[in-house]
Write a structure and sequence with these properties.
The chain is of the alpha+beta class. The chain is built from five helices and five strands. The radius of gyration is 16 Å and the shape is globular.
Length: about 150
């Protein structure tokens, strides 16, 4: 497995179909249907900010999955101390390659990049209906820090 940084918005837009389609299927009241063109345009904007990084896992030069994260730094205020974290927005591995260590390899890259940036906290979230993600992240050593609740009116 080879993990490399990419700025190829078209590659990520293609790989994103797995994530976006899953979200739209499970939570259609929140997520839009996958659109390659819309995702590519949004990624162009995201990557121009300079605080986001995307890495692709490859096997025999074939993309297997990716991880997209953002470096977040917050100034302190009267309520909270200054903080920095590496926030994982998305991690995806193609269905046929799940369970083969690609997700773990991508998360190891996240840890490596956090250390390079002098960051000691990695954060992410996943939807409660995504039991597979919950098990994966627990297995990677993540623990629940807070819960977000919602009420439709």
């Amino acid at each position: 497995m080879k993990i490399i940084q990419t700025f190829d918005k078209l590659l990520i837009a293609r790989l994103n179909e797995t994530v976006q389609s899953l979200h739209a299927e499970r939570l259609p009241e929140i997520f839009k249907e996958y659109s390659f063109d819309e995702v590519a345009l949004e990624l162009d904007c995201i990557l121009s900010k300079g605080t986001h990084e995307i890495y692709v896992a490859e096997e025999h030069q074939e993309p297997i999955g990716y991880v997209w994260f953002e470096i977040r730094r917050a100034e302190g205020n009267a309520f909270k101390k200054p903080s920095s974290s590496l926030y994982v927005h998305q991690l995806a591995v193609v269905h046929t390659k799940r369970g083969a260590g690609y997700g773990k390899g991508l998360m190891e890259k996240v840890v490596e990049r956090a250390k390079v940036h002098g960051i000691h906290t990695i954060e992410l979230d996943y939807w409660c209906v995504n039991e597979e993600a919950k098990r994966f992240y627990e297995h990677q050593g993540f623990s629940i820090q807070r819960e977000v609740v919602r009420k439709e009116i």
